[in-house]
Amino acid sequence: MDWGWVRKVSIADVITIVNAMVGFVAITYVIDRKWLEASSLIIAGVVLDGLDGFAARRWGSKHDRGRYLDSFSDTISFCIAPALLVYGLFYDGTRGSAWNDPMNALAVVASTWLATFGILRLARFVQMDHAKESFLGFPTPANALFVIALVALFGASRDKVPAVFEANVLVLVVAIAASVLMISDVPYPKVSDALRVPVTLAAAGFGALAFLAYLFLASRATVEAIVFALLFLGIVAYIVGGPLYVRRARSAGEVLPVQ
Q: For 119-129, what is each residue's pLDDT tens digit?
Protein backbone atom coordinates (compact mmCIF):
# COMPACT_ATOMS: atom_id res chain seq x y z
CA MET A 1 0.00 0.00 0.00
CA ASP A 2 1.29 3.41 -0.99
CA TRP A 3 1.34 5.78 1.99
CA GLY A 4 3.02 8.59 0.08
CA TRP A 5 -0.10 10.74 0.38
CA VAL A 6 0.49 10.98 4.13
CA ARG A 7 3.58 13.11 3.50
CA LYS A 8 1.38 15.61 1.67
CA VAL A 9 -0.87 16.20 4.69
CA SER A 10 -0.12 19.66 6.07
CA ILE A 11 -0.86 21.33 9.39
CA ALA A 12 -3.72 23.21 7.71
CA ASP A 13 -5.19 19.90 6.48
CA VAL A 14 -5.10 18.49 10.01
CA ILE A 15 -6.93 21.55 11.37
CA THR A 16 -9.51 21.28 8.58
CA ILE A 17 -10.09 17.58 9.30
CA VAL A 18 -10.45 18.31 13.03
CA ASN A 19 -13.09 20.89 12.08
CA ALA A 20 -15.01 18.18 10.22
CA MET A 21 -14.73 15.86 13.23
CA VAL A 22 -15.99 18.59 15.55
CA GLY A 23 -18.92 19.20 13.20
CA PHE A 24 -19.80 15.50 13.22
CA VAL A 25 -19.69 15.34 17.01
CA ALA A 26 -21.96 18.41 17.06
CA ILE A 27 -24.44 16.43 14.97
CA THR A 28 -24.36 13.58 17.50
CA TYR A 29 -25.18 16.07 20.25
CA VAL A 30 -28.10 17.36 18.19
CA ILE A 31 -29.37 13.78 17.91
CA ASP A 32 -29.06 13.50 21.71
CA ARG A 33 -30.95 16.83 22.01
CA LYS A 34 -28.06 18.53 23.80
CA TRP A 35 -28.44 21.91 22.16
CA LEU A 36 -25.86 23.89 24.12
CA GLU A 37 -23.14 21.33 23.56
CA ALA A 38 -23.92 21.18 19.85
CA SER A 39 -23.85 24.98 19.57
CA SER A 40 -20.55 25.15 21.45
CA LEU A 41 -18.97 22.66 19.05
CA ILE A 42 -20.18 24.64 16.04
CA ILE A 43 -18.51 27.72 17.54
CA ALA A 44 -15.34 25.67 18.01
CA GLY A 45 -15.56 24.72 14.34
CA VAL A 46 -15.63 28.40 13.38
CA VAL A 47 -12.47 28.98 15.42
CA LEU A 48 -10.75 26.07 13.66
CA ASP A 49 -11.92 27.37 10.29
CA GLY A 50 -10.30 30.69 11.09
CA LEU A 51 -6.98 29.00 11.86
CA ASP A 52 -6.60 26.62 8.93
CA GLY A 53 -6.25 29.38 6.34
CA PHE A 54 -3.52 31.04 8.39
CA ALA A 55 -1.76 27.69 8.82
CA ALA A 56 -1.84 27.10 5.05
CA ARG A 57 -0.20 30.46 4.39
CA ARG A 58 2.22 30.23 7.28
CA TRP A 59 3.51 26.69 6.73
CA GLY A 60 2.43 26.06 3.15
CA SER A 61 0.92 22.99 1.53
CA LYS A 62 2.18 20.26 -0.78
CA HIS A 63 -1.03 20.13 -2.82
CA ASP A 64 -3.67 22.48 -4.20
CA ARG A 65 -6.73 20.66 -2.90
CA GLY A 66 -7.00 22.51 0.40
CA ARG A 67 -10.01 24.58 -0.63
CA TYR A 68 -11.92 21.41 -1.56
CA LEU A 69 -11.11 19.77 1.76
CA ASP A 70 -12.11 22.97 3.55
CA SER A 71 -15.41 23.03 1.67
CA PHE A 72 -16.22 19.43 2.61
CA SER A 73 -15.41 20.17 6.25
CA ASP A 74 -17.49 23.35 6.27
CA THR A 75 -20.43 21.42 4.79
CA ILE A 76 -20.52 19.25 7.91
CA SER A 77 -19.86 21.94 10.52
CA PHE A 78 -21.66 24.97 9.07
CA CYS A 79 -24.40 23.51 6.85
CA ILE A 80 -25.55 20.11 8.09
CA ALA A 81 -25.00 20.62 11.83
CA PRO A 82 -26.87 23.98 12.12
CA ALA A 83 -29.64 22.72 9.84
CA LEU A 84 -30.17 19.63 12.00
CA LEU A 85 -30.09 21.83 15.10
CA VAL A 86 -32.94 23.93 13.69
CA TYR A 87 -34.88 20.84 12.65
CA GLY A 88 -34.40 19.10 15.99
CA LEU A 89 -35.50 22.14 17.97
CA PHE A 90 -38.53 23.23 15.97
CA TYR A 91 -39.97 20.09 14.40
CA ASP A 92 -42.48 18.50 16.77
CA GLY A 93 -43.80 15.15 15.62
CA THR A 94 -46.66 15.29 18.11
CA ARG A 95 -48.25 18.05 16.01
CA GLY A 96 -48.40 15.85 12.94
CA SER A 97 -46.40 15.70 9.74
CA ALA A 98 -45.08 18.70 7.84
CA TRP A 99 -47.83 18.11 5.28
CA ASN A 100 -50.49 18.87 7.89
CA ASP A 101 -48.85 21.22 10.40
CA PRO A 102 -47.67 24.67 9.19
CA MET A 103 -45.11 25.04 11.97
CA ASN A 104 -43.49 21.71 11.15
CA ALA A 105 -43.56 22.61 7.46
CA LEU A 106 -41.73 25.85 8.25
CA ALA A 107 -39.15 23.95 10.29
CA VAL A 108 -38.51 21.57 7.38
CA VAL A 109 -38.17 24.46 4.91
CA ALA A 110 -35.81 26.41 7.18
CA SER A 111 -33.53 23.44 7.93
CA THR A 112 -33.52 22.23 4.32
CA TRP A 113 -32.71 25.66 2.93
CA LEU A 114 -29.94 26.20 5.49
CA ALA A 115 -28.25 22.97 4.40
CA THR A 116 -28.89 23.28 0.67
CA PHE A 117 -28.07 26.95 0.20
CA GLY A 118 -25.02 26.58 2.43
CA ILE A 119 -23.70 23.82 0.15
CA LEU A 120 -24.38 25.97 -2.92
CA ARG A 121 -22.54 28.84 -1.22
CA LEU A 122 -19.51 26.63 -0.60
CA ALA A 123 -19.55 25.36 -4.19
CA ARG A 124 -19.38 28.94 -5.43
CA PHE A 125 -16.56 29.66 -2.99
CA VAL A 126 -14.49 26.78 -4.36
CA GLN A 127 -15.11 27.93 -7.91
CA MET A 128 -14.45 31.65 -7.58
CA ASP A 129 -14.49 33.28 -4.12
CA HIS A 130 -11.28 31.72 -2.78
CA ALA A 131 -9.21 33.84 -5.16
CA LYS A 132 -11.08 37.11 -4.63
CA GLU A 133 -10.64 39.83 -2.03
CA SER A 134 -14.23 39.54 -0.79
CA PHE A 135 -16.97 36.95 -0.48
CA LEU A 136 -20.04 36.90 -2.68
CA GLY A 137 -22.94 36.06 -0.40
CA PHE A 138 -23.09 35.57 3.36
CA PRO A 139 -20.28 33.17 4.47
CA THR A 140 -21.38 29.82 5.91
CA PRO A 141 -19.39 30.10 9.19
CA ALA A 142 -20.96 33.49 9.93
CA ASN A 143 -24.39 32.11 9.06
CA ALA A 144 -23.88 29.15 11.40
CA LEU A 145 -23.00 31.51 14.25
CA PHE A 146 -25.98 33.69 13.44
CA VAL A 147 -28.38 30.74 13.45
CA ILE A 148 -27.24 29.25 16.76
CA ALA A 149 -27.29 32.67 18.46
CA LEU A 150 -30.72 33.39 17.00
CA VAL A 151 -32.07 30.06 18.22
CA ALA A 152 -30.49 30.37 21.66
CA LEU A 153 -31.84 33.87 22.28
CA PHE A 154 -35.28 33.82 20.68
CA GLY A 155 -36.33 30.25 19.98
CA ALA A 156 -39.22 29.09 22.18
CA SER A 157 -38.27 31.63 24.82
CA ARG A 158 -41.67 32.33 26.39
CA ASP A 159 -44.10 30.41 28.54
CA LYS A 160 -47.40 31.04 26.81
CA VAL A 161 -48.15 28.79 23.83
CA PRO A 162 -49.20 31.58 21.40
CA ALA A 163 -46.11 33.62 22.30
CA VAL A 164 -43.87 30.59 21.78
CA PHE A 165 -45.48 29.91 18.42
CA GLU A 166 -44.97 33.50 17.29
CA ALA A 167 -41.36 33.55 18.49
CA ASN A 168 -40.58 30.30 16.69
CA VAL A 169 -42.16 31.53 13.46
CA LEU A 170 -40.03 34.67 13.62
CA VAL A 171 -36.84 32.69 14.26
CA LEU A 172 -37.52 30.30 11.37
CA VAL A 173 -38.40 33.09 8.96
CA VAL A 174 -35.19 34.96 9.84
CA ALA A 175 -33.21 31.71 9.42
CA ILE A 176 -34.74 31.27 5.96
CA ALA A 177 -33.81 34.85 5.06
CA ALA A 178 -30.23 34.24 6.21
CA SER A 179 -30.02 31.08 4.10
CA VAL A 180 -31.11 33.03 1.02
CA LEU A 181 -28.49 35.66 1.81
CA MET A 182 -25.81 32.97 1.46
CA ILE A 183 -26.55 32.54 -2.26
CA SER A 184 -27.10 36.24 -2.93
CA ASP A 185 -24.72 38.59 -4.72
CA VAL A 186 -24.27 40.75 -1.62
CA PRO A 187 -20.51 41.24 -1.02
CA TYR A 188 -18.93 40.53 2.36
CA PRO A 189 -15.34 41.27 3.39
CA LYS A 190 -12.77 38.61 4.06
CA VAL A 191 -10.73 39.01 7.20
CA SER A 192 -7.03 39.32 6.41
CA ASP A 193 -4.58 36.97 8.08
CA ALA A 194 -3.15 39.89 10.03
CA LEU A 195 -6.51 40.34 11.67
CA ARG A 196 -7.79 36.77 11.53
CA VAL A 197 -5.32 35.29 13.98
CA PRO A 198 -5.76 37.85 16.81
CA VAL A 199 -9.52 37.82 16.34
CA THR A 200 -9.66 34.02 16.26
CA LEU A 201 -7.45 33.67 19.33
CA ALA A 202 -9.49 36.33 21.12
CA ALA A 203 -12.67 34.44 20.24
CA ALA A 204 -11.16 31.20 21.52
CA GLY A 205 -10.06 32.90 24.74
CA PHE A 206 -13.46 34.48 25.17
CA GLY A 207 -15.12 31.12 24.62
CA ALA A 208 -12.85 29.45 27.19
CA LEU A 209 -13.58 32.15 29.77
CA ALA A 210 -17.29 31.90 29.06
CA PHE A 211 -17.14 28.12 29.50
CA LEU A 212 -15.33 28.47 32.83
CA ALA A 213 -17.88 31.03 33.95
CA TYR A 214 -20.61 28.62 32.91
CA LEU A 215 -19.06 25.90 35.05
CA PHE A 216 -18.45 27.94 38.19
CA LEU A 217 -21.18 30.57 38.27
CA ALA A 218 -24.56 29.76 39.72
CA SER A 219 -26.58 31.68 37.13
CA ARG A 220 -25.61 29.68 34.05
CA ALA A 221 -28.59 30.93 32.07
CA THR A 222 -27.30 34.49 32.48
CA VAL A 223 -23.85 33.55 31.21
CA GLU A 224 -25.35 31.79 28.17
CA ALA A 225 -27.57 34.79 27.42
CA ILE A 226 -24.61 37.20 27.56
CA VAL A 227 -22.41 35.04 25.33
CA PHE A 228 -25.07 34.47 22.68
CA ALA A 229 -26.24 38.09 22.82
CA LEU A 230 -22.70 39.33 22.10
CA LEU A 231 -22.36 36.77 19.34
CA PHE A 232 -25.69 37.75 17.83
CA LEU A 233 -24.91 41.48 17.90
CA GLY A 234 -21.51 40.89 16.33
CA ILE A 235 -22.94 38.89 13.43
CA VAL A 236 -25.76 41.38 12.88
CA ALA A 237 -23.14 44.14 12.67
CA TYR A 238 -21.29 42.07 10.05
CA ILE A 239 -24.50 41.44 8.09
CA VAL A 240 -25.30 45.14 7.92
CA GLY A 241 -21.85 46.68 7.90
CA GLY A 242 -19.96 44.11 5.82
CA PRO A 243 -21.42 45.09 2.42
CA LEU A 244 -21.00 48.78 3.24
CA TYR A 245 -17.34 48.19 4.06
CA VAL A 246 -16.72 46.32 0.79
CA ARG A 247 -18.39 49.02 -1.30
CA ARG A 248 -16.45 51.74 0.48
CA ALA A 249 -13.16 49.89 0.00
CA ARG A 250 -13.87 49.37 -3.68
CA SER A 251 -14.79 53.01 -4.15
CA ALA A 252 -11.60 54.12 -2.44
CA GLY A 253 -9.55 51.83 -4.66
CA GLU A 254 -11.03 52.99 -7.94
CA VAL A 255 -8.91 55.27 -10.09
CA LEU A 256 -10.80 58.11 -11.65
CA PRO A 257 -10.34 58.26 -15.44
CA VAL A 258 -8.50 61.24 -16.90
CA GLN A 259 -10.91 63.57 -18.69
A: 999 988 877 65
